[in-house]
Specification:
Radius of gyration of chain A: 23 Å
CATH class of the largest domain in chain A: Alpha Beta
Helix content of chain A: 25-40%
CATH architecture of the largest domain in chain A: 3-Layer(aba) Sandwich
CATH topology of the largest domain in chain A: Rossmann fold
Number of strands of chain A: 11
CATH superfamily of the largest domain in chain A: NAD(P)-binding Rossmann-like Domain
Order of helices and strands of chain A: EHEHEHEHEHEHEEEEEH
Strand order of the largest sheet of chain A: 3-2-1-4-5-6
Bound molecules: adenosine-5'-triphosphate
Structural class of chain A: alpha/beta
Number of helices of chain A: 7
Distance between the termini of chain A: 47 Å
Oligomer: homodimer
Largest sheet of chain A: 6 strands, parallel
């Protein structure tokens, strides 16, 4: 609540701003390029042309009244740092910042960012995982080395029963269930039959998945 | 198998290349800037300075022998398009391409990319979701409007039984289980007691989660 300010309306900043606005949130967008402001002005509550390095400009834009600032300036480290520091100076409670490198990441955390986001690294890691294991469609990390993996059953697995996956051979691997189109199929019985394209929802440790992928 | 070529060693390309190399895959990295090639040369199987727009340069680099090419050139649309077309001309089976805009996305698919990746949009959408619902830690899309959401129990929810979430009031919402530290707790009984910080694994439709988030 209490609105969102997006400073830097590049691809990332514009996406965050418009997604929030479409969900009904109050969004102020700020960029120093008139064209970048103009292309989102209709969708946001407010859109202002300003240089984020200028504390007074941000104060006049009313940034201090907001609970959250997102800084979407990736290339210009100095501008990204100044925007972050200015947001903090104006009393903003939550500041998230997009960055390009681990070094930016560390510096930003030191100067007051609550969270630093590295889109190219996150998506790059994810792409590498899926490239190596095409049946791994997506996954979430739960922390502590555990993951929930969306694993798509291949043609060869059509007709297999669940026990053929030998999940018990692994330290901590289990099937939470599977989606077949729009139908949820529980995986409580080892006799459960799989069909090609079924989306198995597997929970386990990273090491389990590595071996599981090698075995299949 | 059969190796990976990464054309364009920016942040995304470098991440994909090094992640694959660290997993033991055979990786060839290509970039037109000597510095970008030099910084990853030690980690990859091979690293070459070349302009991806030059089909002969790519042929000489041996790109035709690989099964997969990843194009990590985001800014220069023409170079990204040419790199994609060249990879196809050289007979590469799988070509994934990073892009910045929906327009690039559509053009790339038309000229032969198997998959187009938009890191800033994907992470931007994800960030917007988490900003609005801090308890939504992560999620995967299963297609057909279904998602698996990692939902962190708040302090207020400490001691709640599962039935207090009233999951049955929603069209398709169910608890697949929850992680408490490194322990998996099944959610088969409505009497299951929740603790703060528990990571609930919920499966449901987008609309269900929207209402669920509003109610809680
Ligand atoms: N000092 C500044 N004040 C306000 N806006 C700025 C400032 N510097 C850069 N911007 C804006 O930030 C936006 C993002 O800029 P940048 O070129 O760093 O993009 P990027 O990190 O490549 O972004 P993306 O990948 O999200 O497109 C641009 O719209 C740019 O005009
Ligand atoms: N014609 C080309 N041939 C080979 N490499 C190229 C060519 N054009 C650009 N590159 C390289 O592609 C890489 C990515 O370039 P670009 O500036 O488009 O990055 P980007 O999309 O902002 O990348 P990232 O966000 O992943 O850092 C750079 O290392 C650049 O040298």
């Amino acid at each position: 609540g209490e609105g969102f300010v997006i400073i830097g309306l590049g691809t990332f900043g514009t996406t965050v701003a418009t997604e929030l606005a479409r969900a009904g949130e109050h969004v102020l967008g700020i960029d120093r390029h008139e064209r970048h402001v103009a292309r989102v002005a209709d969708e946001l509550s407010e859109a202002i042309i300003a240089d984020a390095r200028d504390e007074d400009a941000l104060r006049e834009a009313g940034v201090g009244a907001y609970a959250t600032v997102i800084v979407g300036i990736g290339e210009d480290l100095e501008a990204s740092l100044l925007a972050t520091m200015n947001a903090r100076l104006l009393g903003v409670k939550r500041v998230w910042v997009k960055a390009k490198t681990r070094t930016h990441h560390r510096i930003l955390l030191k100067i007051g960012a609550d969270r630093v986001i590295l889109p190219e690294q996150e998506i790059g890691r994810h792409a590498a995982q899926v490239l190596r294991n095409p049946q791994v469609r997506d996954y979430v990390s739960l922390g502590n080395g555990f993951h929930v993996v969306e694993y798509v059953a291949s043609e060869d697995m059509d007709g297999w029963t669940l026990d053929r996956l030998k999940l018990d051979d692994y330290q901590d691997l289990r099937a939470l269930g599977l989606m077949r189109g729009t139908e949820f199929v529980p995986c409580t019985s080892p006799e459960t039959e799989l069909k090609a394209e079924d989306k198995l929802l597997l929970l386990g440790r990273r090491e389990d998945f590595r071996r599981f992928g090698d075995v299949l």
